[in-house]
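WARN no homologs supplied; continuing
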Amino acid sequence: MKAFAELTPREILAVAISSEEEDARIYMTFADDLRERYPTSAKVFDEMAEEETNHRRMLLEIYEQRFGPKLPPIRRDDVKGFLKRRPIWLTSNLPLDTIRKEAEAMEFQAARFYQKAATQTTDVEIRKLLGDLAEVEQTHETHAHELEKSLLTENVREEEDRTRHRMFVLQYVQPGLAGLMDGSVSTLAPLFAAAFATHHNWETFLVGLAAAIGAGISMGFAEALSDDGSLTGRGSPWLRGGICGLMTALGGLGHTLPYLVPDSWPNAFWYATGIAGVVVFFELWAIAWIRTRYMDTPFLQAVFQIVLGGVIVLAAGILIGGS
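OK structure emitted
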């Protein structure tokens, strides 16, 4: 890699041309990713990609006038200290806010880099070139905001907010809720069966811990392998799997942790079991609230489904453990 101070004006122009070309491709990728979900925002990125392409043409014309038709094989990745683009655009179904923030960061970083580099060089020609590039990047950022204001009307923003809410539910709430339900309900039977079979807190805690972690791993892989998100728009399968697995484990650990109460305490078993029962009550009501808030399920219906199911599983565990 070459230091920036070692670059010739020809190489600086070549790096700028390749940078504009790469940024145009990134914006086109953003636009393609958003087109079905947020068509108006996709149009913004189409316009930004066209701007980058126009600037590339301008730089090519300047380069050909001064140095001829052949570009040296150098890119910004070959220059020490040059800004790097994170490969975030390689991920499909990115949240709209994430894409917008990434685009703003791209333009801001480019302008800042050129400005800083311009102040560090003593070569007048290079200094002027870097200053011109900084102004171009600042124009990009300003133009992006102008495009967003002109295209994203209040009605369009409301529609995009509704789409963003649907995507949030699909990508985060649904896998998280599925995991929380499985972890909170499915671990009740083995935990309370072990509790009433042994009447020892530590052994009960170990059973609950194993059940929670095992269920988390199982649910995580099941969610990740069930849908790659390409057709449903549910996002990265590994992100969904991670959310589902984590919430499953947390759901099981909630009523397992009370059994850390030392067996040496007076009435330790009943003390821990009482706390665990209270935790179960709040877990089931929290699940019912989430179903009502995000899944449009009537609250009483959600309570009946979740609480009744949880009570049945809990009773089964107690009966099995006490037999």
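The beta strands are 2-3, 79-80.
OK
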